[in-house]
Amino acid sequence: MSLHTLAAPAADPTVVPLPFDRPRWEAWLDEHTDPLWRPDEWVGEHWLFTGDPDESTTAIWRCNSAGCHVAVRASRHLCRSCYEQFVESGLSKEEFATVGRRATVRALPGSRPHCSAEPEGIRCALEAATRGSCTPHYVKWRYEHRSGQTHLELADWLATVAGPLPPGRPCLVGACVGTAHGRRTALCTYHRERWRLHRKKLGMTDASGEELAGWAAVQSPWLSGFQFTLLPLNPLLRREVLYALVQRDAQRPTLSPVAVRLLVRGLEGVDSIGAMPPQQLADLGYIDRNCEAHWNDVLRLVRAAFDRFRGIDPLDKPVWQLADLGLRSRTRSGVRTVPRQLDTSVIRQDWLRRLLADWVKETTPENTDFRRFFKGCSAASRALELRPGGGHDPSTLKVTDMDAVVEEIRTRQREDGTGPLSAGARNELLTSFCQLLDFGRRLQIVDDLATGFARQRHHQIPYEDASEDMAGKAIPELVIAQLDAATDLIGVDFSYRDFPPDVVQAMLRTVYVLLRDTGRRPWEVRWLRVDCLDTDGGEYVLIWDNCETQGVSLGTGSLTRGTTGRTCLVEDLSASGPQRCLLPPAR
User: Fold this and answer.
1) Span of 56-65, 249-258, 324-333, 355-364 with lowest mean pLDDT
2) CA 422, CA 469: separation in Å to the nearest integer?
3) Per-residue H/E/C for 304-321
């Protein structure tokens, strides 16, 4: 895989680039990187990560074939060799996983059996590499066999002629589990060949011990599919990538060693991610979405860190990287992880844009609240821009300017152009904007904001009853009858994880009955808890969560579906949190 980037247009020659203090940037990265990150998998001394397939936060698994140690990228999958043998075996996956071990399993370095040379009961201490023989014995037998010095086959030669060899020395490359058996270089077979190719490429006829030690210090060990190393990168780039991986764990703790290996391979030759000029990812060659997601996270986190290192507040930029603002989310990590840019230049008034930035710093809002406040500010900005002075001076704003803001929000349309927002959604935008103004006054952020620029009694958005529209959108009873007649087909030939087919069918039929008889939205059924059923007065009660939906505002009352009057009784649909609805009698 190769990583190519498209350079940005040539910069203005009058622009002087900021000085880049490389040692201080390295020290900043070291200071803000947790040295105890994944202690069971990461070896900082050798910049080596060995993924544990039993660790839930590491996206790597063993091949599902018995006795195979090859890494695969999905659970219960087979490696390529095992899959080819599985296809030819005629066995089921379950049978092959238990008894269909592949004929040949390549042993890992350091775990191979000893050489089979064992004259006079003393076995060779070196690892077997070829046909049960260690490399020195195999090379010697092949020379004698080709030169006619012996006519014995390898196995007979090892049993009668070959003498045992002592254990090899540790390979000079750090973290390499191979052993060196040569007299000239303390390298294992794998690295000795790489050293030969390196010398050939540079035209080195002879090399000193210092040159060999310098070469070995930056070489990666032989890597299995569970591993990746940052050694191929320059020292600064290693620290940048490591910092990003540590920070990424705090946001989305699932790391793919294979994806990081591809990323490291593509970054070879790059000097620094943080110091790169504005560039865009153009072509990653052979790459998958998982590797691209890791790359996007690394790029975003390193650039955000480089801005903080230089004293640049991400909220001072015209384009905000939402994942860098610390917004709270309902994800497992509790913070926003989806990378998205937001152009705040649509808020034309500087004081309003700064007020929104200060609100984000002080309150650390959730994604939904931030989105609502931003949309309220953008609507108010458009209204103020059409007023005399454009609303740029907060001290000159009047009640009439607030009237314009309220009118802009009152007539706000949906983003898809299908009509106006619901009354509840428009009220939320107006309330959010007014709360932002109150925040600025309370914390004295905008001391010069005119007192008349505030919500008055007449600034109301009347509630519109949408029950008739909701009834018109209800599924007709004829369609419901057709679905009821075919419930035995729900979930047939549909796979879900590793659940048995009968469990999948029962689960999907239950989901259909809940949607049909309670009137709950699919998202609310999706988030039902295990203990969602209760009883009240001999009646079954479903406990559900009222998921907020943009543009939908439901008040206290009852929901009806179709024309038969089947009712889902609710206590209060306007409040979020656990609600109760009475299930109708079973059909």
Assistant:
1) 324-333
2) 12
3) HHHHHHCCCCHHHCCEEE
Residue 42 one-letter amino acid:
W
Contact 33, 243 (CB under 8 A): yes
- Report the C-alpha gap between 250 and 344 in whole angstroms: 27
Q: Is it the case that residue 578 has pLDDT exceeding 50? A: no
For the record, the structure tokens of 443 come out as 């914390």
Q: Which residues pair with 580 in a beta bridge?
A: 543
Phi-psi region of 565 (alpha: psi -120 to 50; beta: other; left: phi over 0): left
229 secondary structure, DSSP code = E
The per-residue pLDDT for range 99-116, each reduced to its tens digit, is 765 555 555 556 677 888
**DSSP 8-class letter at 17:** P
pTM: 0.64
Helix axes 235-251, 22-31, angle to 10 degrees: 30
Q: Give kind and range of the element (H or E) at residue 147.
A: helix 135-147
Q: Cα(59)–Cα(72) distance, rounded to whole angstroms?
A: 9
What is the Cα–Cα distance from 387 to 281, expressed in whole angstroms?
Answer: 42
Phi-psi region of 492 (alpha: psi -120 to 50; beta: other; left: phi over 0): beta
pLDDT band at 287 (very low <50, low <70, confident <90, very high): low
- CA 301/CA 252 separation, integer angstroms: 13
Q: Please provide the DSSP assignment of 524-584 as one string.
A: HHHT--TT-EEEETTEEEEEEE----TT----SSEEEETTTTEEEEES-SSS-SEEEEEPP
Q: What is the C-alpha separation between 207 and 213, in angstroms, rounded?
A: 10
Instruction: Tell whether the model's pLDDT for residue 440 goes beyond 90.
Output: yes
Element (H, E) at 237: helix 235-251
Q: What share of the chain is helix, strand, coil (3-state, %, to 5)?
A: 40, 10, 45
Amino acid making up residue 162: A
Both structure tokens of 553: 């505002």
- The secondary structure element, H or E, covering residue 428 is helix 423-442
Whole-angstrom Cα distance, residue 136 to residue 181?
8
Sequence-distant contacts of 11-15: CB under 8 A, at least 24 apart: 11/277
Helix axes 367-385, 423-442, angle to 10 degrees: 90
- 221-234 pLDDT, tens per residue? 888 889 999 998 99
Strand (E) or helix (H) holding 380? helix 367-385
Which one, of 549, 298, 274, lies nearest residue 428 by Cα?
549
Residue count of the chain, please give it.
Answer: 587
